Input
Amino acid sequence: MSNKVYELVTNDIISKLETVNPSDYQKPWFNIGVSPYNAISKKTYRGVNFIMLGANAYPSKGYASFKQWQEKGCMVRKGEKSHLAVFWKLNQYEDEDTGKEKTVPLLRYYRVFNSEQVDGDFARQVEQQKLRELNELDPIAEADKLIEVYLQGERIKNDWSDRACYIPSLDKIEMPQLGQFRDAESFYSVFFHEMTHSTGAEKRLERDLSGGFNSKSYAKEELVAELGAAMLCGAINLEQRPRIDHAQYIAGWLTGLKSDPKFVIQASAQAQKAVDYIQQRAAFYRDWNGNPTPELF
Output
């Protein structure tokens, strides 16, 4: 990809950062229950609950307590074993002796059952409802080709999920399905974002992927990934100019950081290296497999 495209993306996003409101950004996909969620509240389980319930082998990811199922006219089948879930929050109170405010963690556990363990019409609706909500979107061949060749060549794992993320310790990308997005361009843009993250792995370009949430290094890596996504979209003519939601997303991560032009330019340079890496490696794998290398590489 020519340097002009890189410059176009960088300059356009820098200008947009001055005008967009990060609160306008909306996640471009909806959950369908690929991740464990409460079948009644529709909220996705987080933290240790996400790990524990996500490890179960049920096709459905909808869970609820015995009472919740019962209130929906469903009955847990005899002999079915429940699954542990935990609830915790921080309670604050004033110490009577010292008058100082104290914080005490409150931890409780409860039992839930998967919809596959339950009889009743509502349980069947839970299993089908989200799948019916998928949008009918046409895949984009060139984008699919780039994703497939790069992931296979680099041996990066890919699983469908209700969240979009790159997990460095597993060298794995999790993504919502195409039909969960409002449009195909958003799907590929998010996928390219996670692919850009993957280039930061120690065995690739070795960027700092250890930053904690809201840290400067975390914000910079998010900026690199979002710039990389915009550049890849431009490289395959998916979008002639960067999308406004790229700028909205970036602005959100830059909130709280002082204005620093070098910060954006440095991140842009790293994004350029990441995009070069993805395209060069994809070209190598395609050529190595005996396939013709398209012009975009």
Summary: Confidence is low (pLDDT under 50) at residues 292-297.
